[in-house]
Amino acid sequence: METTKQTILNIRDLHVQVKTHNGQITLVKDINFELKQGKILGLVGESGSGKTVTSMSILQLHDHKNMNIEGSITLKGKELNGLDNREMRKIRGKDIAFIMQNPMNAFTPVFTIGHQFVETIRTHTSLNKKQAKELAVDVLHSVNLPEPSKLLKKYPFQLSGGMLQRVMIAMAACLHPSVIIADEPTTALDVHNQLLVLRLLDNIRCEFGTSILLISHDLGVISEMADDVIVMQKGRVVEKADVFELFDHPQHDYTKKLLRTRPSLYIEKQPYTYQL
Ligand SMILES: Nc1ncnc2c1ncn2[C@@H]1O[C@H](COP(=O)(O)OP(=O)(O)OP(=O)(O)O)[C@@H](O)[C@H]1O
Fold first, then answer.
1. How far is the CA of 10 from the centre of ligand 1 (A)?
2. Predicted pLDDT of residue 263
3. Is the Cβ–Cβ distance between 214 and 41 less than 8 Å?
4. 159: which of 64, 74, 196, 208 lies 20 to 30 Å off by Cα?
């Protein structure tokens, strides 16, 4: 029997508005969901449905001058909505890691991967430079990236998109965050790298009990990865169910439409080998 998992991230009555010349426009409204420990929650919906606005709200990355975020966003009971930048910076990366669609945007082009990796580790831990570098090498090795020491000396443009995405996941994983928000983590990758990245995320969840908010417009990916799914349309949650329920008995017409157009993707579950 499934034991009751602890709620790690709790979103209540999230309502995000943006100021425009014509007044305030609502981008998402009445968003309620929770992310349980060690679970993967899929967030699906067509382009423009509000998935990124929701994740940016959790990370408090909106421009506060133009955006108004109402509602409650708690991480292990701590309210994030309204926290100042300094406090959020401590939480982002350490407690909530963010993996974005285009990994090239996550790295500064003028610094080596090693510099950025080591700095990220040192920002959130008390490790010295040498220890941080050793950790970086170990973690890169564990995500099957070849010759980690050489890789650390490279610049982002010298790596493929798939490799960069794996480096980004390795950086996220080594700080053992409670939550990973993965926003279309595989969209820019070929099928081979898609599978590698999804397997890595699943391994991190198994190893560290990390909870993952997996954002995708691709129900094929969601069906293989998620425990529970929420479906968004036009800034609202239209359906919320466990993954089997959603795929076997979709309730909302929009979910039925998404299901009819879904591509299939099979992810072979491997015995767990991820070591840090
Ligand atoms: N800063 C902004 N100012 C005005 N409108 C915005 C802003 N950010 C997002 N929007 C609008 O909010 C809506 C939701 O956008 P969002 O990026 O969350 O969609 P999405 O579901 O993530 O789409 P995609 O799958 O294409 O990334 C869209 O209509 C978008 O144009």
1. 22
2. 58
3. yes
4. 208
Cβ atoms of 44 and 232 closer than 8 Å: yes
By alpha-carbon position, which residue is closest to atom 4 of ligand 1? Answer: 18
CA distance 3 to 261: 34
Domains, the chain, in order of start with CATH, read 7-260 (3.40.50.300)
pLDDT tens digits along 197-254: 888 899 889 988 999 999 988 888 899 999 999 999 999 999 999 999 999 999 999 9
pLDDT tens string 88-139 = 988 998 899 998 888 788 899 999 999 999 998 998 888 999 999 999 998 8
Distance 54 CA to ligand 1 centre (A): 9
Do residues 132 and 121 lie in contact, with contact meaning Cβ atoms separated by under 8 Å? yes
Determine phi and psi for 266, rounding to 5 degrees: -105, 125
Q: 74 CA to middle of ligand 1, Å?
A: 23
Q: Within a 10 A sphere around the Cβ of 185, how many other Cβ atoms?
A: 26
Q: What's the CA-to-centroid distance between 27 and ligand 1, angstroms?
A: 7
**Pocket mutation for ligand 1, best pick of 16, 22, 24, 51 (most atoms within 8 Å of C-beta):** 51
Q: Is the ipTM value over 0.85, yes or no?
A: yes
Task: Sort residue 210 into left (φ over 0), alpha (ψ -120 to 50) or beta.
Answer: beta
Which residues lie below 8 Å from residue 62, measured CB to CB, with a gap of 6+? 16, 53, 56, 69
Ligand 1 is surrounded, with C-beta below 6 A, by 18, 27, 45, 47-53, 217
Residue whose CA is closest, atom 29 of ligand 1? 48
Torsion angle (degrees, nearest 10) of CA 255, 259, 263, 268 = 90
Whose alpha carbon is nearest atom 24 of ligand 1?
A: 47
